[in-house]
């Protein structure tokens, strides 16, 4: 069975560890690709097929919406979910209005949220 490919883009390495731990409980185990730099993640997406993208909107190097536009340009088929500690009302509206984004989850992501995301 093909392992699901998940890209995590978050500047907080603790979030990487938490997500890795939670995802390790899922069978079959997904293959994780963790990035804290948006340009590295975007370059990776150009050459790899990803099933699920977990994206923090608030990164120091690049604004989250700019990253989403770059991902759209690549034409990835992966489902995109926004992860954030806090999302202002304007971002919530943009997330809800953008059909490219499958949903928004607050950090830290629970096991139930992860399973919900994977089942969509």
TrEMBL record:
Lineage of the organism: Bacteria, Pseudomonadati, Bacteroidota, Cytophagia, Cytophagales
Entries under SMART domains matching the protein: REC
Domain (Response regulatory): residue spans on this chain: 5-120
InterPro entries xref list: Bact_response_regulator, CheY-like_superfamily, Sig_transdc_resp-reg_receiver
Protein name: Response regulator receiver domain-containing protein
Modification sites for 4-aspartylphosphate: 56
Domain of life: Bacteria
Cited PROSITE patterns: RESPONSE_REGULATORY (PS50110)
Keyword terms: Phosphoprotein
Record GO biological process: phosphorelay signal transduction system
Keyword presence, Transmembrane helix: no
């Amino acid at each position: 069975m093909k392992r699901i490919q998940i890209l995590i883009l978050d500047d907080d390495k603790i979030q990487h560890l938490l997500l890795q731990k939670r995802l390790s409980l899922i069978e079959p185990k997904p293959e994780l690709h963790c990035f804290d730099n948006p340009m590295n993640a975007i370059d990776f997406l150009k050459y790899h097929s990803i099933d699920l993208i977990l994206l923090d909107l608030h990164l120091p190097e690049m604004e989250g919406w700019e990253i989403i536009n770059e991902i759209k340009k690549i034409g990835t088929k992966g489902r995109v979910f926004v992860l954030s500690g806090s999302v202002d009302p304007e971002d919530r509206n943009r997330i809800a209005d953008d059909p490219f984004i499958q949903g928004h989850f607050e950090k830290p992501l629970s096991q139930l949220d992860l399973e919900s995301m994977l089942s969509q």
